[in-house]
Amino acid sequence: MTTINPSARKKIKAGSFSLNRFGPGAQAAFHIILALFSLLCIIPFIFVVIISFSSEESIRQVGFSFTPVSWSVEAFTYTFRLGNALWRSYFNSFLITIVGTILSVAITILYAYPLFRKDFRFRGFFNFLSFFTMIFGGGLVPTFVICKSVLGLSDNYAALIVPMLFSPFNVIIMRTFLQTAVPTELIEAATIDGSGEYNTLVRIVLPIVKPGIATVALLVALSYWNEWFLSLLYLNKNMDIMPLQYLLMRMQRNADFLAKNSSMLGADAAKAVAQLPSQSLKMALVVFIVIPIACAYPFFQRYVVAGLTIGSVKG
Amino acid sequence: MKKVLSLILTLALILSVLSFAAADDLPTITIMFHGSNVTDDKAVLEKVNEYIADKVGAKLEVIWGTWGDFDEKSVKVLEGADKDVDIVFTSSWSDDEYNSFAKKGYFLKLDDLFAQYGADLIAALPEDLMKAATIEGAEGKGVYAVNGFKDTATQNTWDINVTLLNELGYTVDDVKEKGFFGWGEIFAKAKEVKGDSFYPFLVEPVVAERMVTNSIIVSGDGNANLLSLYLNPDDVSAEGPYGNKLLNKFATPEYKAFVEKMHEYYEAGYIDPALSVGETSNDCRANHQKDASYLIGTQVYAFGYEYSPDVLSRGVEVQFLPCTEPYMDSTVSQGAMMAINSASEHPEEAFKFLVLLNTDPVLMTLMNYGVEGIHYTLDEDGLVVFTDERANYSPWTNGVGNVTLLPDTKDEGKGFRESFKAYYSTGKVIPSNGFFFDPEKVETEMAQLANVNAQYALALDCGATDPETELPAFLEALDGAGMQAYLDEANAQMDAFMAK
Mutate which of B67, B93, B206 to disrupt the A interface (most A C-beta within 10 Å)? Predict the structure, then answer.
């Protein structure tokens, strides 16, 4: 097997260092721009946290504000009193995300790897097969009918996981990544050394493309964590497996619907609006949703940054 | 590898065979409700299934649709001809609209089933409700849904904070006498006493418009909300000032007078600006009602609303002053119905269940209020007192069916349901009841007009923009978007309907 000598790699880096360097003025400008950008990203979340700790009176009086008139932890004590419903949906979100991500990444790799191998005869066909679904879809109702009636995806965890297992976009990312990171010679060398196909994939290829796997895993995990539409479609009777996003989405949609139809529903709408959870409660749930995924970022970050730069280093 | 795979496949086969063997022989019917707030239905369904096993010969499963997800779910079920759902809620106002879906063939025509099993149900429902359910559908004229017996007449009321009104030195009679156009003086007084940040006039703008001009919702006009049919405020069963003609809501002198006055009130600071923005309007109204920080508001009324917890909890004396007597129109008479999915495999059982639900007090109470001893208890007068468990089981009462079968609750007081029935039996039918506008031919115009409407109407209704300049601009934009074609089509349909 060939490996790059570490000292040689250092030399390459040191050589290109001065070329990539910016002057102090440009450095400062970039820092300021990036700082402003990160502020733009983080301020909405801080705002949400503040609202979740605002009292209802304060929201009634001054609306959403960075400086509420009075503070309250009522929204959080209420969410804890939601008890089972909250924790169960929290658990469901985790379960769906973890199982979904593992399965989806496995499928993506197993689909992308043969597409990357130039000696695979039906490469073109399978490439087209996945690519085709990016352009033409079945539409919502046929998809729903197939999933529900043919595949039995209804009121079970599978309904929330299976429809999103395969994404052609991720396969393309993975395939491109394999093409840039894994030289064909490496696989040939492994074959000559007597490594079987599975051994080559697991022992030789996968360790090299860790950054690519992490990128795809992050994308998949995010989409599973944020998913609520599948629950809307496929959960009817078994609400015990509802994920947290859907719990929140349902509150929001209820409020929207009542606002739209209040003049039709009359007193019924007024009664229903009175039962709706408060604004601060919704924001408290948003905090619950954001924190775990925000915690996951640092773990992925190392690989994602490596994944973004790997192509250019090879140049 | 192969061994493991074959083992798994064999196991899967055995399991699936076993699960079929364990299945019950009673068929399962599934019903889909709207607007529910139910997280735990085990106790209720256990009792219901015990109760209906002999009477219906089926087991019941329920999909508790909520306000936010029902439309999407039901449309999917019906469009996808999902045979797993037998009974679906429908109405004249939600997305799975009764008239259009019956026409598309999504609902089963029930006439034969009514003739065979429905005698009790026909006897239990007012004649007008049966009539309102009889429409032109995919299989010709007939009944395509079981109409729920709820508040069968519309009544718009002024919601008056009497405590504050008396504090200001006025009475409800003053409010009545002065009328909408003469309230300026009362509002000014309220503003003076309660301070500048107090907004006395808490309106739902589109409702206020109907109340002041005595116009009603025209079914089928949808979110565009462009047509007006004017009532006769003194006798709703007689023809209004324009007969049965449908008018461009925004081009009438009635509308002009209304928005001019609203603008005057708005400029004087009597109306909260948050009411003029679609996203905040409803929240704002609910919040001010909740802490009684208003003087006069609007409320679409249902008999007994003053006894509901959200009115009682305002902590002030509230009175609802009606603008007209209750009237029955097409919208309200198709307010909550239950249709049978034409893809259902058990239509007979489904229909039998609907008959029982709408005629049997035991089943209706069970479905609506839950299990005695768990979700409610009865006090010494036999009145229903809800327990904390009710929070986990609150279907939308009016969406379940015949609410007149329900026992009285403690909040409502003894004899409530009797007075409820009596109240609505007086509801008069408007001359054009049963008319539904079918916008199929003018769908393009409708979409464009709805956009124009969304741009201007709410702000005008709320008084936030000046009608002097905005109203002519609005009318011009409507004309440009094809208002005349829309009106002509609507009136042609109305004339054809009235000629019958």
Answer: B67
For B318-359, the three-class secondary structure string (H helix, E strand, C coil) is: EEEEECCCCEECHHHHCCCEEEEECCCCCHHHHHHHHHHHHH
Q: What is the pLDDT of residues A114-146, one digit of tens each?
A: 999 988 899 999 999 988 988 888 888 888 888
Tell whether domain A82-314 is in CATH 1.10.3720.10: yes
For A239, the closest chain B residue by CA position comes to B39
Render the burial of A257-286: b for 16+ CB within 10 Å, e for the rest: bbbebbbbbbbbbbbbbeebbbbbbbbbbb
For A2, B99, B175, B421, B490, the CA distances from B34, given in Å and listed in that order, are 66, 18, 37, 23, 30
Q: What is the pLDDT of residues B378-415, one digit of tens each?
A: 999 889 999 988 888 999 999 999 999 999 998 888 88
Task: List domains and CATH numbers for chain B.
Answer: 23-149+333-425 (3.40.190.10)
Q: How far apart are the first and last CA of chain A?
A: 21
What's the CA gap between B211 and B276, in Å, rounded?
17
Which 8-state DSSP code applies to residue A202? Answer: I
Within a 10 A sphere around the Cβ of A155, how many other Cβ atoms? 18
**Residue B176: is it exposed, middle or buried by C-beta count within 10 angstroms (0-12/13-18/19+)?**
exposed
What count of CB pairs under 8 Å joins A to B?
A: 114
Helix or strand or coil: residue B300? strand
Tell me the domain boundaries of chain A: 24-72, 82-314
Q: What is the pTM of this model?
A: 0.81
Q: Which residue has the tokens 């979409």?
A: B447
Q: Is A236 on the interface with B (CB under 8 A)?
A: yes
Question: DSSP readout, B216-237?
Answer: EPPTT-GGG--EEEEB-TT-TT
Distance between CA atoms of residues B496 and B487, nearest Å: 14
Q: What is the ipTM of this complex?
A: 0.78
What's the CA gap between A297 and B446, in Å, rounded?
A: 47
Of B39, B80, B302, the CB nearest to A145: B80
